[in-house]
Specification:
It contains four helices and no strands. With about 120 residues, the chain is mainly α. Helix 2 packs antiparallel against helix 3.
Length: about 120
């Protein structure tokens, strides 16, 4: 790759020409690394506490996340139609988040939940 020549300076045809174009296009290409490489998973608490129930817990949490995503979009649309304002939607989201925080602070524990 040290002696790269312009594309037109070589008389290549067919796959050789395509390979040379791809070689020039990928010169000094930086390969992306996976985002979660060598990092803890988001689900580490579920996976650590679940043991033999890990599959069920992951299924339930993913299902609840998907359902809330669907319902949240629908309710946001209804609120936007009625109030014609995004402020109300953000207040509802803030209220739900605040309720979730209070619920977690009241009922969360560090004690082992399963066998």
């Amino acid at each position: 790759m040290a002696g790269l020549k312009p594309i037109g300076s070589e008389k290549l045809e067919g796959m050789d020409k395509i390979s040379r174009i791809m070689e020039i296009a990928r010169y000094k290409e930086v390969k992306p690394t996976p985002i979660n490489e060598n990092k803890k998973s988001v689900y580490s608490k579920t996976l650590a506490d679940g043991h033999k129930y890990t599959g069920s817990l992951m299924g339930i949490t993913n299902m609840l996340g998907a359902i809330s995503g669907i319902i949240g979009v629908y309710i946001s649309g209804l609120i936007l139609e009625v109030t014609n304002s995004w402020d109300a939607i953000f207040y509802v989201v803030a209220g739900v988040m605040f309720f979730g925080m209070i619920f977690y602070l009241l009922f969360a524990s560090v004690e082992k939940q399963f066998d």
